[in-house]
């Protein structure tokens, strides 16, 4: 991405030699330096996060070793991102899952963002829905063949059930 020197200098101005305080129940903490990350509530924070997460998104989308779910002969869906929530749609191949986890881990090491494993649910669909397969057991993801919820939408292995859980009262 080429943002130009002017924009880069403005971002550096806002994020170089900054400090902050915490207000808790009306009490102010001592001032402390912010050494990494962005300040909560800063108008630039969400834009900078989106720029950073775009690198991960592009890497996953262009990675030929991560196979998504085919929609048409030449079309597939791999991911859906909204702010810091991500949903990945992969085929039933272990290599796709392994390469996705490797990509997320590498991104975490370079960005400081970490996968919250306790919030990760893997919904088995298609051929895997009747199985008990669990790739990368050491990651301790929640594996299910029943349903998974992302961004308030519940997905099941049955189209009718998915509609009932999300649309009808």
Automatic annotation (TrEMBL):
InterPro entries: DNA/RNA_pol_sf, RT_dom
Pfam families, alphabetized: RVT_1
Organism (species): Dreissena polymorpha
Protein name as catalogued: Reverse transcriptase domain-containing protein
Domain Reverse transcriptase as annotated: residue spans: 8-154
Domain of life of the native organism: Eukaryota
């Amino acid at each position: 991405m080429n943002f130009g020197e002017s924009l880069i200098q403005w971002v550096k101005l806002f994020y170089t030699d900054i400090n902050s305080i915490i207000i808790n129940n009306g009490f102010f903490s001592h001032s402390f330096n912010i050494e990494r990350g962005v300040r909560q509530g800063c108008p630039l924070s969400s834009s900078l996060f989106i720029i950073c997460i775009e690198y991960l998104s592009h890497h996953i989308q262009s990675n030929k070793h991560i196979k998504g779910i085919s929609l048409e002969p030449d079309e597939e869906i791999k991911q859906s991102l909204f702010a810091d929530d991500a949903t990945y749609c992969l085929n039933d191949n272990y290599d796709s899952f392994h390469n996705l986890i490797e990509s997320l881990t590498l991104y975490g090491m370079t960005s400081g963002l970490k996968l919250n494993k306790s919030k990760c649910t893997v919904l088995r669909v298609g051929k895997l829905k009747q199985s008990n397969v669990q790739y990368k057991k050491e990651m301790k993801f929640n594996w299910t063949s029943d349903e998974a919820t992302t961004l308030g939408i519940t997905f099941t292995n049955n189209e009718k059930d998915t509609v009932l859980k999300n649309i009808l009262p």
